[in-house]
Specification:
The protein has 115 residues and is an alpha+beta fold. Helix content is 17%, strand content 36%.
């Protein structure tokens, strides 16, 4: 049992009772950012993801998960990547060891960006 990876479920942002993807993790951490997460107002216009350049809340992706060597790195990257297009995310991931990104578009399409 010790050699099996943890199985981490990525929740459907539109239905918290549903898991969309399961990631096997060994010696790594995962963090997920989504505009469906913490919201400052009842209408969901302002969330925990804030673009510091504009002060707005981007709605680029439905969900963005990052697997990284530590939880701190995964958390920082999942939030930062939420502000970037997939090409820029891929460029950043290529320069980082042990980092993968799982991007869920607003159209429910997955993109897996590998290091």
């Amino acid at each position: 049992m010790e050699d099996r990876p943890w199985r981490i479920g990525i929740t459907d942002p539109s239905n918290s009772d549903s898991v969309l993807k399961v990631l096997p993790l060994t010696d790594s951490a995962v963090a997920t950012s989504s505009p469906a997460g913490f919201q400052f107002d009842e209408d969901g216009r302002f969330t925990h993801i804030i673009d510091p350049r504009t002060g707005s809340t981007p709605q680029r992706y439905a969900s963005l998960s990052v697997v990284a060597p530590t939880a701190t790195i995964a958390d920082a990257l999942s939030t930062g990547f939420s502000l970037m297009d997939v090409e820029r995310i891929a460029g950043a991931v290529r320069r980082l060891d042990g980092v993968d990104a799982y991007v869920l578009s607003q159209d429910a399409l997955w993109t897996h960006v590998k290091s």
